[in-house]
TrEMBL record:
Residues 1-19 form the signal peptide. This is Beta-lactamase family protein. Keywords: Membrane, Signal. Residues 37-328 form the Beta-lactamase-related domain. One of its GO terms (cellular component) is membrane. It is found in: Membrane. Pfam families: Beta-lactamase. Its main location: membrane.
Length: 441
């Protein structure tokens, strides 16, 4: 066998390990089960080697007492903090043009802000500025739907001060990327909306991505919904003037795939800039976060605004991209993505809802007990009644439904319970959080 032929076979084998033959039937089955039980709404796109392999929309883009508009793969969603990747890209573009640098001080642009003479552009990019998050401790929910000027937000940032000294540690704060977008506007001498259009959207041909306005059904935009007593209840809309480069963009999973692949193929920034964006300090990159799945490492970002939850991940070794955006979530986002990735990488697993689960009374014994946490004041008493598993907390008792091995749900409240009997542990999951409890001995 010739050397070149051997190399080609090795390359082909490595690509096949992703398995361009991953099971579409398994993906369809999983999402059909979620949709049938009304546990999620949204849209998913999977690509490999730059080619779309799978697209799926489920649920509705809009619901009211008169009509329901089904979601499609072209439905547009607010992507929340995924916007921060766009902001970071433009900052690095400006660095490459010599218009800004990582060591530049915030005081050059906003000298009146706390610690402005100490905070660098680098600190803002990797969340090490110490500036307080303007969406926390500011009665944010009371003014989130009202137009807010730069001056008003700068005043809030100034009044809330700092939580720690610059570069002392990392702590996620929307303030960092709001200020970076204001800096972009100053350097580019144009609104952030125009900057992302010129430097990213038009450059790589994003056809369904733009700076958001009030939700417009005529543009196939989606509203977001929270499940309240088994009914989807529309969430209050954020006025996106509040977030600018911290969370103002509307997009689709397919466009987010185009964006993340353009970034990693150096169509937006240089190899050197991308390397710096990927460099982690205390788990934070500059506009990018790491995500692990087994031995595979991905880069990307999550987002949340109202009840929109989004995630985009790119696995460089597998050339695999996954983007998921939901506008109504009960089944945990982290579990949805985990199932999708297991299918993509052809890993053996049992999907939830894939088969009926009937438990006998003795099967429940391994779960019975009292579970608590040192991190929060929560106690779960787990008991059984014949073949029913019952959980009690804060004086309320409810039955949970088995959906997989050691995994139960209470759909009415949106809580999911995964037991690890060998470790004496219980994980409680909701839309986007995991709470860890231990069983008392």
């Amino acid at each position: 066998m010739g050397k070149s032929t051997l190399i080609l076979l090795i390359v082909f084998s490595s690509l096949s390990s992703f398995g361009q033959t991953f099971s579409i039937a398994k993906l369809d089955s999983f999402f059909n089960a979620l949709e049938k039980r009304d546990l999620a709404m949204g849209s998913l796109t999977i690509a490999q080697n730059g080619k779309i392999q799978y697209q799926r929309a489920l649920g509705y883009a809009y619901i009211d007492s008169i009509k329901k508009i089904p979601a499609s793969i072209n439905t547009k969603y607010r992507i929340g903090s995924e916007t921060k990747m766009f902001t970071a890209v433009i900052i690095f573009q400006l660095m490459e043009e010599g218009k800004i640098n990582l060591d530049q001080k915030l005081s050059l642009y906003f000298p009146d802000l706390p610690n402005a003479s100490k905070i660098t552009i680098s600190n803002l990019l990797n969340h090490r500025s110490g500036l307080h998050n303007y969406t926390e401790g500011t009665n944010y929910k009371e003014w989130m739907d009202k137009p807010t000027t730069h001056e008003q937000l700068l005043k809030i940032i100034q009044e809330k001060g700092t939580d720690f000294e610059p570069n002392a540690r990392a702590e996620y704060s929307n303030t960092n990327y709001l200020l970076l977008s204001y800096i972009i506007e100053k350097i580019c001498n144009m609104p952030y909306e125009m900057a992302i259009t010129k430097r990213i959207i038009s450059k790589i041909g994003l056809v369904n991505t733009y700076y958001g306005r009030p939700i417009d059904l005529k543009k196939s935009e989606s509203a977001s919904y929270k499940n309240v007593e088994n009914k989807w209840q529309k969430e209050k809309e954020t006025d996106l003037s509040i977030h600018v480069g911290a969370g103002s963009i509307v997009s689709t999973p397919t466009d987010m795939i185009t964006f993340i692949e353009a970034l990693f193929n150096n169509k937006l920034v240089s190899k050197s800039s991308l390397k710096t964006m990927k460099t982690l300090v205390d788990g934070y990159g500059m506009g990018l976060f790491p995500f692990d799945h087994g031995s595979q490492t991905a880069f990307g970002h999550n987002g949340r605004i109202e009840e929109f939850y989004s995630s985009v991940r790119y696995f460089p070794d597998a050339k695999l991209s996954v983007a998921y955006i939901t506008n109504g979530i009960i089944y945990p986002r982290i579990d949805i993505i985990d199932v999708v990735l297991k299918i993509c990488f052809n890993e053996p697993f049992i999907a939830p809802f894939s088969k009926p689960i009937t438990l006998k009374s003795e099967d429940l014994d391994k779960y019975v007990g009292k579970y608590s946490s040192d991190q929060m004041p929560i106690i779960i008493n787990c008991t059984k009644d014949a073949n029913k598993l019952l959980l009690e907390t804060r004086g309320k008792m409810f039955e949970v439904e088995p959906i997989n091995n050691n995994y139960f749900m209470h759909a009415a409240t949106g809580y999911f319970f995964e037991f690890f009997p060998d470790k004496e542990e219980l994980q409680i999951k909701d839309t986007d959080n995991i709470y860890y409890l231990k069983r008392s001995k």
